[in-house]
Model the fold of this input.
Amino acid sequence: MRRPRNEPATVGTVSVDKVSADSAALRAETAPASRRRARAGTVSGAPILALEGGFRAGRRTLRKRAIEMTSQVGPLQGAILGLLGLLLAFSFAAAGARFLERQDLILQEANAIGTAYLRADLLDEPYRSELRAALKRYAEHRIDVGRRLRSGLMSADLAEAEQLHAGIWKAARDGVAARPAAMLAMLAPVNEVIDLHATRVAAIEKRLPPLVLVSLIASSMLAVWAIGYGAGLAGPRHVPLTFALTILISLALWITIDLDRPRAGLIQLSDAPLEALKLE
Done:
């Protein structure tokens, strides 16, 4: 449990300390539009180039009549495609699970804000109105920041979140001090609101390790190259089939990377639970 900076705890042991890594972690979830376009172009275009390069290499080998090499292509293709399938299966499943986890955290945060807003009825005025106003501003802030994460997170957004946390905690602390009977019912949801911010920041760090991502991309390129190479050795290639398989591999790779970075790609997290809050 945490307490905003410079706000001493006078009731219970609840505390909210913001870690200095918040800014770096949140920025890791964002990407400029130019980087998104470059990544999409690479993921979609590189496999096509690898396929064509492999086909041309196979045709050159066929012209040299290196027949003794062709018998090795089939087993190698099977091994490479098997490895790619294994990497894609685990990576896709992991990225999808983390995407759903981040979406669930948004719902949990919305529920915590709504609960704290309702339980503000337990406080006397003016603390009740102060807490509700602070919670409403915080919910609006979260929605606004979520809409702008595609173009990057501003340092002012982090500073505003710090101030809003402090305002929420101060209103709850003062209200409970004036009415101690509401301490347990009031502080738990308020503390959960603030803690869920740190939980969502930590969830951003749960990504595919760079080594796994590099291995996945390299295996995809090698597999597509091997498909093209085998087609080149066979003579005339079946263009619809080879291109369809290449597109499927590219699509699976792109979706895996996109799910792993849900604020930087086309597959976006939804802030609908926060937007659905009725905070009057």
